[in-house]
């Protein structure tokens, strides 16, 4: 762990837990529009949005950033999930579409807690032939993510943990495999990221998502927690020793133990514990919606 994180904030560090899947071909945009939960038609070339892929029952398989270079060139920036398994699952739905799906093993992803040189908000900079820059900063500070064919960035688990903790503080659920296929977009509060659409045409799970939205049946959402000791996705959250919810993502950085939990939106104040250790709820930060 760095003694002075602020002094090294300009450091570029690798993010090997982020991988890129490329969708290319005449039907790339149409395929993405039919499969993913956000509305790609409102996204201009040179921009990106949060999106995800759902099961037919409306559970989130994975959350990712979808980069649109043009109608025939899309990238999925996929954190945590196995890109090979994900791409193979997508491939089963290609049928006769003119589309290629490829895991870009030739690309590297790196981050830095500094302002981007050109990217702003949902506008990316660069091109897929060289390097691409994204603005992933928010009210908690500046961040830059770069995707490039070669990188000399250091591999430092401490900086990776800080990156993940920043995500959690802003309501980006970093879902491990154990939490895939478990939660609806509303239970993960993904409306905070503008990550799904209830108005566009059909996509897997759309009926569940739209029904939940329009019938006002959203009863659970994300809460940010800080625990007294290390916590893990899958741990139970209790309120006054009664079951309250489950942790869906965790990050342990700089001596802080953070987690996101799915909990009832309406609940009485109570003493919170995770695996017997006290935890406290923190307000979620804003600014990562795209």
TrEMBL record:
SUPFAM superfamilies: Folate-binding domain (SSF103025). Keywords: Transit peptide. One of its GO terms (biological process) is iron-sulfur cluster assembly. This is Folate-binding protein YgfZ. It comes from Agrilutibacter terrestris.
């Amino acid at each position: 762990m760095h003694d002075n994180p602020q002094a090294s904030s300009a450091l570029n560090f690798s993010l090997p837990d982020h991988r890129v899947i490329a969708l290319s071909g005449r039907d790339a945009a149409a395929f993405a529009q039919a499969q993913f939960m956000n509305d790609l038609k409102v996204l201009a070339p040179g921009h990106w949005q949060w999106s995800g892929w759902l099961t037919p029952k409306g559970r989130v398989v994975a959350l990712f950033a979808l980069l649109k270079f043009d109608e025939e060139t899309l990238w999925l920036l996929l954190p945590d999930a196995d890109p090979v398994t994900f791409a193979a699952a997508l491939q089963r739905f290609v049928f006769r579409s003119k589309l290629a799906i490829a895991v870009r093993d030739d690309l590297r992803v790196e981050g830095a807690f500094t302002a981007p040189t050109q990217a702003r908000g949902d506008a990316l900079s660069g091109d897929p032939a060289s390097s691409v820059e994204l603005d992933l900063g928010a009210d908690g500070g500046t961040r830059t993510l770069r995707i490039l064919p070669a990188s000399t960035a250091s591999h430092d688990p401490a900086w990776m943990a800080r990156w993940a903790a920043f995500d959690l503080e802003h309501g980006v659920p970093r879902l491990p495999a154990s939490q895939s296929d478990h939660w609806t977009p509303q239970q993960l509060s993904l409306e905070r990221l503008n990550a799904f659409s209830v108005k566009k045409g059909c996509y897997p799970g759309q009926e569940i998502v739209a029904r939940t939205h329009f019938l006002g049946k959203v009863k659970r959402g994300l809460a940010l927690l800080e625990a007294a000791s290390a916590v893990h996705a899958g741990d139970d959250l209790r309120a006054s020793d009664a079951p309250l919810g489950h942790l869906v993502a965790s990050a342990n950085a700089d001596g802080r133990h953070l987690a996101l939990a799915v909990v009832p939106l309406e609940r009485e104040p109570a003493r919170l514990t995770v695996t017997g250790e006290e935890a406290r709820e923190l307000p979620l930060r804003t600014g990562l919606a795209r």
